Amino acid sequence: MKNIILVTLALLLVPNCALQAQETKELNELIVIAGKKKHKKLLGTGMKISGGATSFTPDKTGYEVGSIIKTKHPFEIEEIRFNVLSNSIEEAILGVEIYSIENGFTKRLSQPLLYKIPNGEKLNIRIVPDSRIILEPGEYFIAIRFVDCSENSVRGYSESLQNYKERERMLLPLYIKNSYIRKGSSAELEKSKANIGLKVKGIEYR
Questions:
Q1: In this predicted structure, what is the pLDDT of residue 26?
Q2: Distance (Å, whole) CA 206 – CA 44
Q3: Would you say residue 152 has pLDDT above 70?
Q4: ∠ CA(174), CA(160), CA(96), 5° rounding?
C-alpha cells in the first residue's frame, strides 16, 4: 500500500456551524408517486486529495461524517457507495444515517443502514436499502456513522496508546468538497473542508 498522508478531519473544520438533533421521524414505506422518473446521482465526491486519508479508530464509535444535500423533487435512494483504503479494526460496523434539517435536526430512519466492514485493503462498499427510502423535497444530512467494533479492538487500541504498539484503524480517502462531522449523537455538526467520498444514487420523480 502506498504512503498515506493521514489528515484528521478536525484540522479541516470550519467554525460556527451548529445543528442539534431533536427527534426521530421514520420514512413512510407505502408511497405512490406519479409522473416522470430519472436515475441520477444525488451526492458526489469532488476531487480526490492524492495520498490523503482520515480514519476511524476504536475509541470513535458514534462519530459521523457526511454531507448536506438538497432535493427539489421526491428522491428514492437506491444505493450508497464509499471506499475504505484499509481496515484493521475487528468486527467494525458502519451505518448510514439520514437526517432532515428543514426544521431543526430530525432523524429519518429508525435504524441506520448497517454494513460490517471486513479487514483488508481497497474495499469498495455498496449499501442497498432493504426497504424503500424516499426523500421528500427538502434539505438533508446523509452521514456514515462508526457504529461499533469488538471489545478486543477497543482494549487493544487503549493499550497501543500506552505501549506505542501499532494501532487498529480504518482509513478512508479524502476529497476536496465540504462535509460535516458529528462527535456523537448529542454533539453539534461541525463543517469540514474535505469529505470521505460518499456517493448516493437513486431515482428522482417529477
A1: 43
A2: 21
A3: yes
A4: 40
